[in-house]
Amino acid sequence: MKSVETMIAEALAAGQTTLSEYDSKKILAEYGIPTTEDLLIDELAAAEQAAEQIGYPVVLKVCAAAAQHKTEQNLIELGIGNAVELKKAYDRLAPKARNLGGAILVQEMIRGSRELVAGLNRDAQFGPCVMFGLGGIFTEALGDVVFRVAPLSREDAREMTTDIKGAKILGGLRGLEPVHIDELSNCLQQLGQIAIDHPAVCEIDINPLIVRKGHPVAVDALIVLQEPQPPATTEKAVTGNLTKFFEPQSVAVIGASGTPHKAGNDVIQNILANEFEGRLYLVNPKGGEILGHRVYPSIQDLPEDIDQAIIILPARATPQAIRDCAARGAKTVVLAAGGFAEVDQQGEELQQATIQAIQDTGVRAIGPNTSGHTSTPHKFTSTFFPLGKVPRGNVSYIAQTGNFATHTMRYIMTAEHFGVARVLGMGNKLDVEESEVLEYYAQDPETQAIFIYLESFKKPRRFLEVAREVTRVKPVILLKGGATAEGSRAAVAHTAALASDDRIIDGALRQAGVVRIYDYSHLILAAKAISAMPLPQGNRVSLLAPSGAMLVCMTDLCHRRWGLEVPAFEEKTRRYLQDMSPPFIRMRNPVDIWPAATVSGVEFAYREGTEAVLKDANIDAVVMILMITDETGVPPLDFIIELAQRYPEKPLFVAFTGQKNHMDDAKAYLEPRGVPTFPLIEDPFEVLSILARCRQAMER
Amino acid sequence: MKSVETMIAEALAAGQTTLSEYDSKKILAEYGIPTTEDLLIDELAAAEQAAEQIGYPVVLKVCAAAAQHKTEQNLIELGIGNAVELKKAYDRLAPKARNLGGAILVQEMIRGSRELVAGLNRDAQFGPCVMFGLGGIFTEALGDVVFRVAPLSREDAREMTTDIKGAKILGGLRGLEPVHIDELSNCLQQLGQIAIDHPAVCEIDINPLIVRKGHPVAVDALIVLQEPQPPATTEKAVTGNLTKFFEPQSVAVIGASGTPHKAGNDVIQNILANEFEGRLYLVNPKGGEILGHRVYPSIQDLPEDIDQAIIILPARATPQAIRDCAARGAKTVVLAAGGFAEVDQQGEELQQATIQAIQDTGVRAIGPNTSGHTSTPHKFTSTFFPLGKVPRGNVSYIAQTGNFATHTMRYIMTAEHFGVARVLGMGNKLDVEESEVLEYYAQDPETQAIFIYLESFKKPRRFLEVAREVTRVKPVILLKGGATAEGSRAAVAHTAALASDDRIIDGALRQAGVVRIYDYSHLILAAKAISAMPLPQGNRVSLLAPSGAMLVCMTDLCHRRWGLEVPAFEEKTRRYLQDMSPPFIRMRNPVDIWPAATVSGVEFAYREGTEAVLKDANIDAVVMILMITDETGVPPLDFIIELAQRYPEKPLFVAFTGQKNHMDDAKAYLEPRGVPTFPLIEDPFEVLSILARCRQAMER
Question: What residue ranges define each of the domains in chain A, with the CATH number in brackets?
Answer without folding.
Answer: 37-109 (3.30.1490.20), 114-225 (3.30.470.20), 534-698 (3.40.50.261)
